[in-house]
Amino acid sequence: MNQQPSAANPVSRILTASLIGTTIEFFDFYIYATAAVLVFPKLFFPAADPTSATLESLATFALAFFARPLGAAIFGHFGDRKGRKATLVAALLTMGPSTVAIGLLPGYASIGIAAPILLALFRFGQGLGLGGEWGGAVLLATENAPAHKKAWYGMFPQLGAPIGFLLSSGTFFILSKTMSEDNFITYGWRIPFIASALLVWVGLFVRLKISETPEFMKMVSKEERSKVPFADVFVKHTAAITLGTLATVTTFLLFYLMTVFTLSWGTTALHYTKSSFLIIQMISMLAFGLGIPLSAIWADKYGRNSMLIVATVCIVLFGLVFAPLFTTGSLGITAIFLSIGMFLMGLTYGPIGTALAGIFPPAVRYTGASLAFTLAGILGASLTPYMATMLAHNYGLAYVGYYLTAASIVTLLALVGAKKLMKQQVE
């Protein structure tokens, strides 16, 4: 039987609340990623040579991915026990202050070793908040969705990724074009971090107006809540958490190769200007944004697992042409290369939230989906910019592509193994 959104949660409010929160969260996350490449090596790690400083900065970038599973476990527990709405608000209030604090943090020249230590601490806070944000936003959408449109509803939180990235890159592009390099390094980069506080207030306003999801209320009325969701996920749903994590690895790896790594490599080894590369990255985000709704339509029509398998096969092949497309020296061809990669990213990213939510029962769904997603982040994204930089320096760009292809094969095998699981909790 098709479940319809309740009168208390009209469709527009559901989709807006799920989209705006992830947009804010990903905006916060991406401004760090951009600054980790363009600013932080000079500001927080000035004692190291340029390559080492970049690697140290990327290591702090990776830290948030290790915080995300902790956030998934903490917020997932309350999301499954106390409700989706309150937990989503708490997650937003965790990441927002951490981001603003980074924008106010003095550099190494002012407070010495305390600067990179505090940077790592606030970065951990960012990861903690995002670990609880994503799963709740997906459930807010999918648990209010009709059965035949779950992928369509579930893709709205996913749209927060390209929108957040466009806002982030656009902000840095404007700043880089309107101020000198010295002023940008001194204070300009801080503006988007501090300004994110305004976005958080907007997100809170929208989310405080939504009601709890019907599926959670039904679970409460039947007294089906798990006492310890984290334990139940690993004890009773071992196959789901394992296969769900591996099935999501390539989603993360592809994204951070096409954003953080390509920005770093393109503006150093390939000598593109910072502003020109940010422009073509923003163009590629449009391809990303196009792929997400298309994949949701196809997932609702042909099945989430089938859509994800097709997308992953395409990524396997893309890894084999990664280096030839990225080393032409042509900005136009590089823009096409980024757009192809990000379109494939949209095809795998669009249905992944709905697919992960669909393999866990409501009693552990917030925890299970969030943990699978965040654990995949550790495997597929935390060290990806670092590993890709090391591979490219030591063996050449072709091995970065092979890295992507190898990870995609692992994901493909997991998707095949999870085919039955993805049918069990669909309705």
UniProtKB/TrEMBL annotation:
Predominant place of localization: membrane
Keywords annotated in UniProt: Cell membrane, Membrane, Transmembrane, Transmembrane helix, Transport
Entries under InterPro entries matching the protein: MFS_dom, MFS_sugar_transport-like, MFS_trans_sf
Gene Ontology cellular component list: plasma membrane
Claim: Transmembrane helix is one of the keywords in the record: yes
Bilayer topology: Multi-pass membrane protein
Gene Ontology MF: a single term: transmembrane transporter activity
Keyword Transmembrane tagged: yes
Transmembrane segments: 29-45, 57-76, 88-111, 117-140, 152-175, 187-208, 229-257, 277-299, 306-326, 332-357, 369-388, 400-418
Domain Major facilitator superfamily (MFS) profile: 14-423
One Pfam match: Sugar_tr
Compartments (UniProt record): Cell membrane
PANTHER family linked: INNER MEMBRANE METABOLITE TRANSPORT PROTEIN YHJE (PTHR43045:SF2), SHIKIMATE TRANSPORTER (PTHR43045)
Protein name: Metabolite-proton symporter
